[in-house]
Amino acid sequence: MSATSLMSADLPNASDAHAPDAAAIDTLHDDLATLGSASDELGADWLDDAAPSHANAAGGGEQAAPAPLAMRETLRRVPVKLTLEVGAARLTLGELAALRADDVLSLDRPAGAPLSVLVNGVPVGLAEVVVSGTQYGLKILTLDAIELDRLAQ
């Protein structure tokens, strides 16, 4: 029975004259908690198949099971956002409010330094800006091993 049907079967609507007793409400809460934890376990088991083992990363423990082929193929089709991070500057809200056109801010990265490549906000490598036709492009300099399940979050 789904959580929706449990709720509609056990909870009164505004037109019901009889409210459920405390035991019925406790049973409903227990059923919903069981459904929620079962769903969490199934989802975690499915995703954990692709995640590297923490014990394995430390040099010991069992080898993590590879992700099922179907899951890897599904993750390969997930759209992601790739961004190139030029740098950052820290300033107060007052300084931000005082900025005007033609003001120049120094960033925390030296000119000519490789820029960070991020996928969904996760750093995955370094690149430099190039011109590709009439648009900016990026030339990949280094790329870390990409863990698909980590990037799909």
TrEMBL record:
Organism superkingdom: Bacteria
Iron among keywords: no
Keyword Repeat: no
Flagellar motor switch protein FliN-like C-terminal domain: residues covered: 74-141
Annotated GO MF terms: cytoskeletal motor activity
GO cellular component, one term: bacterial-type flagellum basal body
Xref: InterPro entries: FliN-like_C, FliN_T3SS_HrcQb, SpoA-like_sf
Alphabetical GO biological process terms: bacterial-type flagellum-dependent swarming motility; positive chemotaxis
Name listed for the protein in its UniProt record: Flagellar motor switch protein FliN
Organism (species): Pandoraea nosoerga
